[in-house]
Write a structure and sequence with these properties.
Elements: H1 2-16, E1 37-46, E2 49-57, E3 68-74, E4 80-82, E5 87-88, E6 95-97, E7 103-107, E8 110-119, E9 124-131, E10 139-140, E11 155-158, E12 164-168, E13 174-178, E14 185-191, H2 196-199, E15 212-221, E16 224-231, E17 237-243, E18 251-257, E19 269-273, E20 276-283, E21 295-301, E22 331-332, E23 335-336, E24 338-340, E25 343-346, E26 352-355, E27 362-369, E28 374-383, E29 388-394, E30 400-407, E31 412-426, E32 429-437, E33 445-453, E34 475-477, E35 481-485, E36 495-499, E37 507-511, E38 520-530, E39 536-545, E40 548-553, E41 558-559, E42 566-574, E43 580-589, E44 596-603
Antiparallel strand pairs: 1-2, 2-3, 3-4, 3-5, 4-23, 6-8, 7-8, 8-9, 9-10, 11-12, 12-13, 13-14, 15-16, 16-17, 17-18, 19-20, 20-21, 22-33, 24-27, 25-26, 27-32, 28-31, 28-33, 29-30, 29-32, 34-37, 35-36, 36-44, 37-43, 38-42, 38-44, 39-40, 39-41, 39-43
The structure holds beta-L-arabinofuranose.
């Protein structure tokens, strides 16, 4: 009932509101999110994914009306998964308004999210949320502000010696040394001198003599400290300064992103991911967009050889995809390159689902690798009305139709069932469009989807086995931190590095459930090397069928060392009884927790 009435409210709102999201035909992939307005990007790289923390501009805003923060993530920089809102003003009982620009960081397995808010007495403060997961939920770490009477826009940075710093401020610029617990600080906040040498000269303002306006973003790269910030107002542009240490002295270096994009503010976040550098910002590029209805976007760039920034302009194309998307594992419906007409909401099955699906709406998923052939499609759906259809199209929303799945009424918007349909053939790599058709009003909700078929047609069952697509397709089996590495490789320009293993069975792995043939003999090859030590490494398959798990030794264990690469190779028959519910390929050691490099992995 609640959801039905929400749908009614949403319909009335959309009829009354001049803001119309989303053009009917969309080719661009920037801005990143089309289902809501987003602002103030703060990216974080963790375990081979980019987590993107943003604010949320309410529809039709005429001020920075922001009540919650949102989280998104991506392994390929083009398809972004919506993780909803794991932190809002209500997380902080002492906050009353202005869920403005913050930043999250990981330390010792916990995630700390620093945010500015306004208190009911009108004063500004910085709070800190904490979670065990990058996607939350976050709780108030202190039950009170971390910093009272603080200016806005906190940016957090941990130096190589373990000292953490929080920078913030508008109109001034401050830093404070955070303690190792990340929820307290030592000493008093210190004002960074806003000199024209450090932050450039602003003309026509005596109260703000330098270009610095707000939104600091601080990080270290190749021994140099960078402070990227929003310059001048209004409109703002993005500029930067550098320093030999975390507290300065800062030297102004120039403009990164000139004024453009239809929003009078801009706000930057910068990361390196999978060998590329990425610049996040916001603009007013969505329909109805502007200074208070902003959208986060991203560009890939390369630093100049001397570490300076090139000029970066906003585009509607965005960065190239890192690797491809695997349709043979469950994909969340809210993993989206471009959404047209739909919205998202929390699902009773966990995570989010796509909803408010109407006739003609569509979702683009970019760079989907069907291998040599998908044969069927399954989707998790719910409908309080009479459902509709999911058309599966390649290349565009009106491209080749490879299948149509009928969705029935299920008796409720959160009453879930799985539907399947066969395909006319989908092979190779394509942009996949899920196009929705049916009668009037809301048709159904979509929680997840998955293809089945023959991904490799007898080829490698592992996604991104050569690891040239970074960590795409790979995750950590057990504990540890997985990263794509360019310093030590077996072939090509990349390998995987796993650090922080806490058990010998921990290692890089991937779900191969949808790819195995019962009774088939597979030959496995894995190149392995350690950072130090001489552990005995092996490749293993964990098979769960009919509720019990067995382990298939895919290769015998072999001693590996840090001086060169060792090939683990073996042939094993993979079989199970009953229904296979989970199969994970992983690389482990017989004992110990040494850091491992892994490259050129195949199982076929
Ligand atoms: O989103 C509200 C404010 O606008 C942020 O705190 C500033 O950085 C500017 O982007």
């Amino acid at each position: 009932m609640k959801l039905v009435s929400r749908r009614g409210i949403a319909l009335i709102t959309s009829l009354l509101c001049v803001t119309t999201f989303l053009p009917a035909v969309a080719r661009a992939d920037n801005p990143i999110v089309q289902t809501i307005y987003t602002a103030d990007p703060a990216p974080l790289v963790h375990n081979g994914r980019v987590y993107l923390y943003t604010g949320h501009d309410e529809d039709g805003s005429t001020w920075f009306t922001m009540r919650e923060w949102r989280v998104w993530s991506s392994a390929d920089m083009v398809n972004w998964t919506d993780h909803g809102s794991p932190m809002s003003l209500s997380t902080f009982s002492w906050a009353s308004a202005d869920a403005w620009a913050g930043q999250a960081i990981e330390r010792n397995g916990k995630f700390y999210w620093y945010v500015p808010v306004r208190r009911s007495n009108g004063s500004q403060a910085i709070g800190v949320g904490v979670s065990d997961s990058p996607t939350g939920p976050f709780r108030d770490a202190l039950g009170r502000p971390l910093i009272e009477n603080a200016e806005i826009d906190p940016s957090v940075f941990i130096d190589d010696d373990g000292q953490a710093y929080l920078y913030y401020g508008n109109p001034n610029l401050w830093y404070v040394r955070l303690n190792a617990d990340m929820i307290s600080y030592s000493g008093s906040p210190t004002r960074i001198p806003l000199t024209t040498a450090g932050f450039g000269a602003r003309s026509g303002s005596t109260s703000r003599p330098t270009l610095y306006e707000e939104g600091p973003w601080v990080y270290k790269r190749n021994g140099l400290y960078y402070m990227v910030f929003a310059a001048e107002c209004c409109s703002e542009y993005i500029a930067y300064s550098t320093a030999p240490g975390p507290t300065g002295p800062w030297t102004y270096r120039g403009t990164i992103m000139p004024r453009q994009g239809g929003s009078f503010t801009n706000h930057a976040g910068v990361i390196d991911f999978n060998g590329g550098s990425y610049f996040f910002y916001h603009n007013g590029a969505l329909p109805g967009g502007g200074g208070f209805t902003r959208s986060v976007a991203v560009e890939r760039f390369a630093y100049n050889a001397n570490g300076t920034f090139p000029t970066i302009n906003m585009t509607t194309v965005g960065p190239p995809q890192v690797g491809t998307l695997n349709p043979y594992v469950r994909q969340e419906a809210e993993t989206i390159a471009w959404a047209s007409g739909v919205e998202t909401e929390p699902s009773t099955e966990g995570g989010m689902n796509v909803g408010w699906i109407e006739n003609g709406d569509s979702i683009k998923v970019k760079g989907v690798n069907f291998g040599t052939g998908a044969t069927s499609f399954s989707a998790r759906v719910a409908s309080a009305t009479s459902g509709g259809n999911i058309e599966l199209r390649l290349g565009s929303a009106t491209g080749t139709l490879v299948g149509t799945c009928r969705v029935p009424g299920t008796g409720g918007w959160q009453t879930w069932t799985t539907v399947s349909c066969s395909l006319n053939g989908a092979a190779g790599t394509h942009d996949l469009y899920l196009r929705f058709t049916g009668g009037g009003g809301s048709l159904f909700n979509l929680n997840w989807w998955q293809f089945s078929g023959t991904p490799g047609g007898g080829g490698n069952v592992l996604t991104n086995g050569d690891t040239e697509g970074g960590a795409t397709g790979w995750s950590v089996f057990g504990s540890g931190t997985l990263s794509s590495n360019t310093a030590v490789t077996h072939g090509g320009t990349r390998s995987l590095l796993i650090t922080g293993r806490t058990g010998s069975w921990n290692g890089p792995g991937q779900d191969v459930t949808a790819k195995l043939t019962n009774g088939k003999s597979y030959t496995t090859n894995v190149w392995v090397r350690t950072q130090s030590g001489t552990p005995s490494a092996k490749a293993t398959l964990a098979l769960t069928a009919n509720g019990s798990t067995s382990y298939v030794q895919l290769t015998p264990a072999a001693t590996v060392n840090a001086n060169g690469w060792t090939l683990l190779t073996g042939t094993a028959t993979v079989s199970w009884t009953g229904t296979l519910s989970g199969a994970t390929f992983y690389v482990e050691t017989a004992a110990g927790t040494d850091n491992l490099y892994v490259d050129d992995v195949s199982m076929q």
